[in-house]
Amino acid sequence: MGVDCVRAKSYMDLHREMSADIEAERASALDMLGPSAVSVRAAVAELLEHRTFAYPLSVLPVIVHAVETGAPGPAVPLAVVHELWWTSACYLDDLADGQAVFAAGALGESEALLATVISGIPLPLLVVQSPRIPEKARGPLSAEVVRCWITATEGQLRDLRADADAATRDAVVTAYLGKSGAPFSMVTAMAARLADRPDERVELWREFGNVLGILWQLFNDQQDILTGRNEDLANGTVTYLLACAVESAGRDCADDVLELHAAARHSTDARAELTGVLLAPDVLRRYEEDISVFRDRAHRLLDELGGDRAYSDVLHDLVDRASPMLLRAAEPVARAVAPQL
Q: Structural domains in the chain?
């Protein structure tokens, strides 16, 4: 690799150091589509170019592999799998929210949808079946890709069909395990399998990925409010914060919260009023306590896993960066600024 990754202090540092390797691996992945798939390659490349990510978490499997072996390089193909998966999933999420027209750059909606199918399933499978992956790992890694799509689709369907009247924190966590837990646990488990670790250790890494995925979804939920986008309210999404508000309201007032939630899909006034309910001190107190529980669980899993200390420290830092309490009671949302992770 020619890169001294051990001195990296954060996942961002590590990504900067390895970005050229990941970019080269991405180009190699596109070449796997073959010479007869010129249009497919161009469409997928356009989709990847358009869908950029503020937080380069594609480096996650690289870090996990380095925790296990001290060597990040062999897991670079998994970073591309992670990137391909999220590119596909984000477009499909936009489609579900009715935003497809704005989500595909120069591609038409139908072209983008076709490219999304290729980038999400066949191309990741080609990557993990490539000669860059040891032969004995190819089958298990392919199974992880398939498993992730099934679990994530289940979570997305739960989200789309969420019944606000039954909004509980446990039910939301179940949905979050599909929406964000599945892809994070996919790549952490894949990295451990690539490192030829025993099944019980792979499952610990899968659990860590699930918890990190929940923390990441909670982080995204907060950003949605802080930036003033309020997409969750406009889409009628049952978030963890909403579940905290419903449970904090008790039986007498829970119906009022749910009525506001239903009205918020079509009314800016209702969204503003519901935001005030969500930012109530008792709601945020419960929310912050639960974030701390998930954060502590992630740190405990990393302590149990051990491994290369330098890279493990990068993951501990990532957990802390993914789990701040950003919302404040009675703070004007319009003046809030989304953080840099």
A: 5-335 (1.10.600.10)
